[in-house]
Amino acid sequence: MKFALFSLMMNLPNAVTGEVLTTQQKFHNILQQAQLAERLGFDAYGIGERHGAPFLSSSPPVVLTAIAAATSRIRLLTTVTVLSILDPVRVAEDYATLDQLSGGRLELIIGKGNDPRHYPLFGIREEQQWDSLDERYHLLKRLWSEENVTWEGTYRPALDGVTTWPRPLQKTIPIWHGSASSTLSTELAAKYGEPLFTSNSFHPQAKYKALIDHYRERLTYYGHDAQQAVIGSGAGSLYLASTGEEAIRRYKPYYEAFHATAAAQHNQSPFTDLEDNIARGPVLIGSPEQVISKILDYHAAYGHQVLSISVDGLTHSEQLEQVERFATEVAPVLRRELPSSVWNDPPVLNEHENSFIPKATDTWPTAISPIFQV
Length: 374
Fold this sequence. Notes:
Layout: E1 2-7, H1 23-39, E2 44-47, H2 60-70, E3 75-82, H3 88-101, E4 106-111, H4 118-122, H5 129-145, E5 149-151, E6 159-162, E7 175-179, H6 183-191, E8 196-198, H7 205-221, E9 231-233, E10 238-240, H8 244-258, H9 262-266, H10 274-280, E11 284-286, H11 288-302, E12 306-309, H12 316-337
Parallel strand pairs: 1-2, 1-12, 2-3, 3-4, 4-7, 7-8, 8-9, 9-12, 10-11
Antiparallel strand pairs: 5-6
Helix pairs in contact: 1-2, 1-12, 2-3, 3-5, 6-7, 11-12
């Protein structure tokens, strides 16, 4: 199994200490977290996209570009890019730029998002989200694979002979399809034989398994080999301790604080409390042995090759502690028990592109270097 660490950059007063970080402090901590993830052997680091408090992740390509400059190996994910509200021309330009600056380490996970606050901000109605996502996805694919694109649709002005610049560094920027609530996402992923990433964040296993099963069925329908399906999965929150009782005691204040936010209540969690979520839901709270057992159980249901975890909301020191404990006490067992071929090969670059890949030791312009002093 391969592992991604991700953040939605939630910036609430700490539920235990009451500490309030400035926006700049939070950005600084995210860069530290990504660098630690690379040092500890995580395969990818992801930034989600939200447009409203308490999240600071409204500009994933900007944040991921900073992370690209501060790292040299780790793959960069969007978890997710809310493509249903974004202009594909802008997405094509921003993320091709990031792909170039990162040395071809970018992979996009697209979705409609699950926070209804973004729809009025970007001028679409919630009932349009699926049609909008479908249209924008097809246009983005064309903009990255073709030149002189002529196109007409519903959700942005027509294009006549447009070539976006820069072109991506990779021959094909991988696109994963985020899946949380509807077979419309799994259908789109299956039709084009592209990988699926289940959110696996708010509901019991059976709900997400049904969507994954649908994805595999439709892969076969469209002539793809379902045995070769590539699937990633989220996992809710992470908190490791020596015993399950200690983990519950230490994590419960964070769980209750987050579930009191409007963003969490929108998801209408069916779990009555943390203990219920541990028993029936996706959170990874417990001893290393308990967490390993739970991940193995979910893998038996999903067959996923990539697992993403998050430590959002904890104190910064706890975040670093939890990431290190997962990397040293959990990940080695799962890598051994669940081998994965995903991300074993380097990215395939465009033939006409320079093969230079920046390293952490390379010198960056003085004007931007202070932000990377982490």
